[in-house]
Amino acid sequence: MTRVRVRGIYSTALTRRLLDASFDVVDASPPIRERFDADFATGEYDADVWMTPDRQGVGVSGREDAVDEVLDVLEGIGVDTFVWRDRAARGAVFNAVVERTVRGGAVVALSSDHEGYLPFDATDEHVEEGDHLRVQVREPNPWWADDRPVVDTQLRAVGGLASLERGVDALVAGTPNGSRDHELARTTELLSPDVPDRWGVRWHYAADGASMDALGDALDELVSLAERLREATADAPAPEDSAPHRVTAPERTVWAWFGRESRFALDAARREVTETMDGHHRIKAGSEAASGAVDFAEALGASTDGFPFGAVTDQFGPTAGDLVAIQHGKPDGRVITLGRGDVTDRDREAGRVTVRREMTAGGVYDELGVDREAGDVATTRFTEGNWWYPTVYESEDGEVKGTYLNVSTPVEVFPDAVRYVDLHVDVVKHADGRVEVVDEDELRATVDAGHVSEELAEQALSVAERVRAAVSDD
C-alpha cells in the first residue's frame, strides 16, 4: 500500500478519506491515534501531506506515482477543490542566478519566470547580484501565496524519519534533542548504513518511536536518494554555464486549495470519526485563534445547526469598521488582491458584509465600458456561501456607472479577507439598464487548459444565467 503522512487542520478528515481508499497512513499524530481504531506504523512515507501556512489547503510532496494517487482522493473531495503542480518541487535542485539582494537574503532566478529566496545564513559564501550557484528547494510555497520557495546551497536527501546532509564529516549530523549521546546516535552505528562519503544522518523527531527495521529501511531509502542526487549533480553542467536551469527533481510537489463546499465535505468526513461542528474547517481556516476556539467548543460538546456566521464574525471579525482585502483567486492558481475596503455593514442573519472601496483614476471598468475616475466608489456585498457577488460602481456625486456581478466559487468571509476563485463568466448591468452575460469564452479556455472541471463550468454558467434573469427582472 502507498504510505502517506498527514499533518494540519485537515488531518482527521483526510486520514478518514485515505484509509477508505486503502492508503497506509504512517507517523500519525497523537490525536489521530486516539480517534481512529487503526494501527499506525511509524516509518517512511511515499507521500507527505501538510497544511499550507495560510490554512487554505494542503501541499503534497513525494514519489510521483504516490502523489498522483493522493490527488485522486483530494480531487474527489468537492467541486471547488483546485490542484496545481509546482515547478519548484520540494527537494528540486537548480542552477540559479542571483537577481538581487534583499534584506536577509537574495532573490534567485530558478527559471525564466520562477524565483526563489535564498537566506544569507543558508550559504557559506558571500552572495551578490549576478552570482551563479546551485541551490535546492527547502520550503516550497503555495502558488496562491506571495512568498517565494525558500532555497539552500546545502544538498539534502529528505525523508520522514531522517535526512542525509552533504558536507558533514560525522556519520550522525544531528538527533531530535541535539545530543551526541542520544540513543539514535548509537543505533546508527548498529545499522551500519552505507552512507556516501561526507554525508551525515540527521534524525527527525518521528524516529524516536520507530522500530529498528523501520529505521534501517528509512536509511536505505535515503542512501538511494542521496546517490541519485549525487549522480544528477555530478553530471549536470556548472551553474555559470547553464543558470537558470533545473538539474533534477527527485520529488513531485502539488498544491490543493479547498473551497467552501470542499471544507464542508471534509467536515462530513471528520464527523464520521469524532464530534465535528458545522463549519469546523471553514472556521479553522480563518486564523489560529479561531482554530483553537473550535477545538475548545467541540471539547465542551457544542453543536450547531448550520454555519454560525454571526458568532464567528462577532468573535473574530470582520465587523463594521474593519478593513478587509478582496482576494480574487484565479483558476490557474494566481491570487489578485483587488484592494482593501472598509466594512460598512454586517448582517449577522443573512451572513453578509458590505465593503466600500475608493477607486483610483485610470482605465475603464471591464465590460461596462465607462471611465474609472477619481472619487469613484465601489460598493460590494459579499454573502457567505454565495456563488456570486455584486459590485456597484458610482461616481463621486452618486451617479451609478454600472453593476458587475461576479460569478465565483462560494464566497468565504474570513477575518481579514474575502476569498473565492473567480470563474471568469460574469453578469454586467449597464447604467442604462442593459444586462448581459460576459466572458463565457474565458471560462471555456480554463476548461480546455485543465484548470476548471466540466462540472464546475456548468455550475458557473447556470449561476450566471440565474443571476442574469434575476437582475433583468429588477
Give a quick summary of the entry.
The chain is α+β, with helices and mostly antiparallel strands. It has twelve helices and 25 strands. Strands 17-18-19-20-21-22-24 form a seven-stranded mixed barrel. The chain has a six-stranded mixed β-sheet with strand order 2-1-3-4-16-5.
Structure description:
- This protein has three domains: 3-85 and 254-271, no CATH class; 90-250, Beta Barrel (OB fold (Dihydrolipoamide Acetyltransferase, E2P)), CATH 2.40.50.140; 308-473, FomD barrel-like fold (Beta Barrel).
- The protein is built from twelve helices and 25 strands.
- It has helices at 11-20, 30-35, 64-75, 183-191, 212-235, 239-242, 260-271, 280-284, 288-299, 309-316, 440-448, 454-473, and strands spanning 3-6, 24-25, 47-51, 57-62, 81-85, 93-102, 105-111, 114-119, 132-139, 150-152, 156-158, 162-166, 172-174, 199-203, 245-248, 252-258, 323-329, 335-347, 352-358, 377-383, 388-394, 400-408, 412-413, 417-430, 435-438.
- Strands 17-18-19-20-21-22-24 form a seven-stranded mixed β-barrel.
- Helix 1 packs across helix 7.
- The relative contact order is 0.10.
- The model has no long low-confidence stretch (mean pLDDT 95).
Q: Catalogue the unreliable spans.
A: none
CATH class call of the largest domain: Mainly Beta
Instruction: Give the helix/strand class.
Output: alpha+beta
Count of alpha and pi helical runs:
12
Domain module count: 3
Mean pLDDT: 95
Q: Total strand count, please?
A: 25
Main beta sheet:
7 strands, mixed, barrel
Distance between the termini: 58 Å
CATH topology of the largest domain: FomD barrel-like fold
Biggest sheet, spatial arrangement of strands: 17-18-19-20-21-22-24
User: What percent of the residues sit in helical stretches (DSSP H or I)?
Assistant: 25-40%
Query: Could you say which overall geometry the principal axes of the C-alpha atoms support?
Result: globular
CATH architecture label name of the largest domain: Beta Barrel
Fraction of residues in β-strands: 25-35%
> What is the radius of gyration computed over CA atoms, rounded to a whole number of angstroms?
25 Å
In CATH terms, the superfamily of the largest domain is FomD-like
